[in-house]
Amino acid sequence: MRSLSSSVSNALLLAGALAVASCGRASGPPGDGDASGTPAPEGPGGAAAVRSAPAPDVAVPDEELVDQDGAPVRLRELAKDRVLVVNFIFTACTTICSPMTAIFGRLQGELGDALERDVRLVSISLDPATDTPERLKRYADKFGRRPGWVFLTGSRERVRRVLDALGGRAPIKEQHTPVTLIGREAEGRWTRVDGIAPPARLAEEVRAFLARGQTAQRASGG
């Protein structure tokens, strides 16, 4: 437990140091921004602001990937009747991936009993050629993965199709930016969170989706 706590704490400390970050650099010269070339807004102390916006073009493809245990997983089955929270990482990353993964580790606690029952966390590898299920499992274990959080890899072609459908592919994986997708496939509604959002912020976004789902269920008499 001591090593697990240290891994998570160190990653969260790194998150604070990587305000505007891609995997290839901790910071950049003035004018640097996201992959589109748009300058990133700055918050207090020069840290990049966390931004949330609707993501209308996101769709969960009917693709089969492989989880950290080597079991086949269909993405639409993962999404069925649940809110998905998705990020994009790879295990050889030396900057933002560990903080993002540590945040998901803390998010599990924020979600409590809703994890797996109502919500699933999904971390998709940007480097499927390297990230075998065994490697993903070792990585996931360092961050205290619980049921309801899956790490996915697969063939290069299948992973590419999934990343394209979700808007998570980066031409150069070392330069990907921190992105979290939150949504409910049945509603076709998604939110894209750019930046290294703290667990409480992500939990707030998730609860908004859960509340909308409960309201819709009551309105339909369910």
UniProtKB/TrEMBL annotation:
Limits of the Thioredoxin domain: 54-215
Record-annotated disulphide pairs: C93-C97
Annotated signal peptide: 1-21
Gene Ontology MF terms: metal ion binding
Region (Disordered): 25-54
Domain of life assignment: Bacteria
Keyword Glycosyltransferase in record: no
Family matches, as CDD domains: SCO
Alphabetical UniProt keywords: Copper, Disulfide bond, Metal-binding, Signal
Keyword Metal-binding: yes
Annotated family: Belongs to the SCO1/2 family.
PANTHER family: ELECTRON TRANSPORT PROTIN SCO1/SENC FAMILY MEMBER, LINALOOL DEHYDRATASE_ISOMERASE DOMAIN-CONTAINING PROTEIN
Full protein name: Thioredoxin domain-containing protein
